[in-house]
Known about the structure:
Radius of gyration of chain A: 19 Å
Shape of chain A: globular
Oligomer: homodimer
Distance between the termini of chain A: 39 Å
Helix content of chain A: 25-40%
Largest interface: A-B, 37 and 37 residues
Number of helices of chain A: 11
Strand content of chain A: 25-35%
Number of domains of chain A: 2
Largest sheet of chain A: 8 strands, antiparallel
Amino acid sequence: MALRGNHLGRPLLEAVMEQVARKGAYPILQLAFEHVGGPFAREAPLDVLRVTAPLQRRVWEEADGIITIYSPENAHEGADLSEERQAASQEMLAPLRARTMAMNVPWVIAEWPVQSLADEAGMSLEEYEQFVFDAVLLDWDAEGARMRRIADVFDAADEVRIEGAGTDLTLSLAGRAGSVDDGHLNMPGGEVFYSPVEDSANGVIEFGEFPAVYYGIEVAGARLVFEDGRVVDATARANEEFLVQTLDTDEGARGLGELGIGCNPGIQRFMKNVGFDEKIDGTVHLAVGNSYSFTGGRNRSAIHWDIVKDLRTEGRIHADGRLVQENGRWLGV
Amino acid sequence: MALRGNHLGRPLLEAVMEQVARKGAYPILQLAFEHVGGPFAREAPLDVLRVTAPLQRRVWEEADGIITIYSPENAHEGADLSEERQAASQEMLAPLRARTMAMNVPWVIAEWPVQSLADEAGMSLEEYEQFVFDAVLLDWDAEGARMRRIADVFDAADEVRIEGAGTDLTLSLAGRAGSVDDGHLNMPGGEVFYSPVEDSANGVIEFGEFPAVYYGIEVAGARLVFEDGRVVDATARANEEFLVQTLDTDEGARGLGELGIGCNPGIQRFMKNVGFDEKIDGTVHLAVGNSYSFTGGRNRSAIHWDIVKDLRTEGRIHADGRLVQENGRWLGV
């Protein structure tokens, strides 16, 4: 059981170690000071940085389970790296990502509320802790049943159309089954997600309500134009260069890796923290880059960037032409 | 390159990571919250605890180098474990110890001065930092040459006799060559050490000046009687039970694994910190348990307990009947 985290996550990490120990299993502690960045990422030659250390690779490939506790000292850690080094740091994680994305190992990412994330969310730590616990401590069986009904609607449909501010995008889910994140895998849970048919996305989506955040870097007002499943034009009000460079990481980075539908009723506010933001009830998110192979996705990339679109003020989702959600509220689901 | 430590050692760990990265090597970070103890050591079934986790074992067996930075939060960590669990925790480290003791991997243990160790030494942190730097920042080439001369004296001799308060012990170094710890391997350096001939130690040694300290537990006034290389009687003024139990860890624990001669002129005070204490100029130390195979030692044990005897007030060392050290001062060396 690989247990990833840092020193700030100690209370939760130690509670997990205790439980793992009681089961007679080994917690292989994988602590680092930063989740991304740090002296190695800053100083290693690029061709070393992008290759996973063999001894590390084996831990990721052979561990019976992978638990990650997220509790950064600084929500923007890694932001001091050049784009080249950020991309190489992502490549280094490829064996880990490959294994979790293929779902051939039990894994979970959970957050331990810390000052940096509270700060980032504009809350006191106490308020933020409450927010995290509210998002996490739900009746997950009941939430799962509710999300299953939502997934059934899209499973039965081929074409999905998303309309909203600056947005009119269609894509196909034909032959793809929805996954319900009901908190038994990830924490918090609260989304229904798909790998859209690779060449099906057409139209435009504007992320005007929230910034697109990737490893601490914010891109405000990102606007993506899709043609036959690929981003053919990308602009932004701020940090457009970072957006474009990230989309040029590799061949698959401009592909559409995921459509997710946020369903967590405990999460109403955007926090610049993707594990929570993508689950805001009344939002959808698109991920450019790598798709989950267990959902049928075939797009491969070193990146997987979830970007959240708020549909609560102005938004409609159609499934095979039928209006199923309006302004964040489900209709007949 | 396995890099072991905890969060308190971060400044030194990060400096090392930076250097390793610049050389194009991988620092495999092996951080734990405790150097010994913690939830796993407290909660795991004993038969799991004593077996090294396979994924951990491979890191220790295959890393190209092993650096340990010692900076405990609590100098007595692990002291809450039962003797059984302490022994099992030691067994778990056997693959690491086997590799470093056989010297088939470059390794170093260095200390980063922290509050707990300053406290233990009865100093302020600032004073303690100065102490550590004084012990470490020596002209190691000159120290090495001086220690080489001391080693030559004992290399040329067969029998060594150590006399001191409550002490009269003879042992043989016949056929065994001395190792000079000149700071190019361990930090601080400053000792000349041998694996005595296994069945040669006879007599008594009383450690009345300093406690014997093992994983934070202090045994005051330990007195060991040796017959033909093995401890046949062990008593103490305090914690005698712990002393005896540790000597009963396994078959080899009552054997004599090492005779070390402290030579670091920067270390004059006992600190309850074995990496420094064993190098106090004018002391010797005996280790019961495992011996270094590269010095010709054949005793095998899960323990290696260095116990320091002060010879500065009252002490004599004879090499083949010739007095070579008196009250901690070398004579004609």
